[in-house]
Amino acid sequence: MAEREHHDRGGSRPQRRDDRAGGRPASGGRGPRARSATAPSQRTKRAEPTRFAAYTLLRSVAEGGYANLELPDILRRHHLAGRDAAFATELAFGTIRWQGFYDAVIAQAAGRPTDRIDPQVLDVVRLGAHQLMGMRVSTHAAADQTVGLSKVVAGAGAGSFVNAVMRRMSEKTLEQWQEAVVLEGGGVDALAVLHSHPQWVVSALRAALLGHGRATAETIDTELEALLAADNDPPRVHLVARPGLSDVDELLSCAQACKSTLSPHGVVLDSGDPGSVAAVRQGRASVQDEGSQLVALALAAAEVGPDVPDRWLDLCAGPGGKAGVLGAMAVQHGADLTAVEVTPHRADLVRATLAALTRHAESVGQRVEVRTADGRDVGTDEPGAHGKVLVDAPCTGLGALRRRPEARWRRQPSDVAELAPLQRALLTSALAAVAPGGVVAYATCSPHVAETRFVVSDVLKKHPDVELVDARPLFTDASGAPLDGLGDGPYVQLWPHLHGTDAMFFALLRRR
Ligand SMILES: C[S@@+](CC[C@H](N)C(=O)[O-])C[C@H]1O[C@@H](n2cnc3c(N)ncnc32)[C@H](O)[C@@H]1O
């Protein structure tokens, strides 16, 4: 590709304001950009495949698609692999993450609110903004390719507008744009623009850091900025070797990877496609965040009374990531696993995820079963039948924003209230389904206090026969050493900016 030498994924995000305080220049070491004075008629008239693929992904997301799910097909259709696929992915995902900040910049550069810009043209300009401010694409290449893309997707008439906006955006450094768009008064509103999060999400994360004891009045500003910045860092790909089916050495031997420092069964991929790893293709290993691995391993390690049944239950299993680890650990402990999922197509995903494990369990005389059912009924249907139950509750996913670039713009504050009764009902059902002496783990990939502590404390009020267990000793790193920064207990809250994991919440309840 013509401008290949300008592709640099090392500096793929707008720099934080903190970086300026350290004296580093904005935009990855470049000063103010040279004005790009090329007339639109002299710009390219074609769309280069990586930009076109990124644009296609943005349009799919605008129409309700999920970036992670759409990406593989779009890359295939545009024949992109290796560095080109990585460039297109970062261009699209980074643009979606930084959309809030870029829209504030674009509104000023265009002299009109973004809702008065044609949505297709707006997406093209957002991609241009990310090339200018988030990736080290040269000003000329970014402008040329962005104008070319606009002509292809929106007609020649769009070229002049896009050319003008790109020129105005390139007249300021990132640092100057941060100054220009930040809202007066600072606080949550300013952080929301600077770190490209909706305001309500910034407020919820602020409350979560305080509510879980991670931050105090003195440290909250620093902690919150660090957490928001971590949400904008593209996460690395982690694999888990399902215990008994694969191991870390096998993954290291066939992938460019290094050992996880957090999970004894995990590796961190340096590069490459997880689908090229045989163990992943065969369902003996899978892609999984380290925080999710730790949650499944913690429940597997939890002690239960002597007479509890050798039956473990995953009450909300789709698509089966934690069930894969929990089921593998169950088989090693001589227990069976039942994975329940209410949505039929997600239950099918769980079946596919657990196929290799199911065969392995049968070969040693045990059972791993997937059931399409409502988890809220299991407690009534099978009271006291299980020794360990996982409730990985449906939640807002505010702890996994870095993995799902569009999620922050889709979620609404009302989602929290809407999910609340379901979360309480599932935990109540789990407590009915567990035998005396058995344990229930309640987990979410959200640190929102209303989805975590409040759910557990509400349900506990109605269950005098249930006690909260300090979950912190169950969370150890890959060497078995206690994990730092887990809070004051008895709950565990992981944090992206501290542990490098999704912000998983974990509570352990034991039925007396
Ligand atoms: C957070 S996800 C679980 C993720 C899963 N544990 C994993 O690691 O792959 C929550 C799941 O619960 C399912 N769910 C929602 N309501 C449910 C219900 N009433 N009974 C069972 N599953 C439910 C959702 O469809 C979703 O697949």
UniProtKB/TrEMBL annotation:
Organism: Ornithinibacter aureus
Active site per UniProt: C445
Biased amino acid composition, Basic and acidic residues: 1-22
Domain of life where this protein originates: Bacteria
Family: Belongs to the class I-like SAM-binding methyltransferase superfamily. RsmB/NOP family.
Name this polypeptide is given: Transcription antitermination factor NusB
Record carries keyword RNA-binding: yes
Family matches, as PANTHER family: NOP2 YEAST -RELATED NOL1/NOP2/FMU SUN DOMAIN-CONTAINING (PTHR22807), RIBOSOMAL RNA SMALL SUBUNIT METHYLTRANSFERASE B-RELATED (PTHR22807:SF53)
UniProt binding sites for S-adenosyl-L-methionine: C316, A317, G318, P319, G320, G321, K322, E341, D374, D392
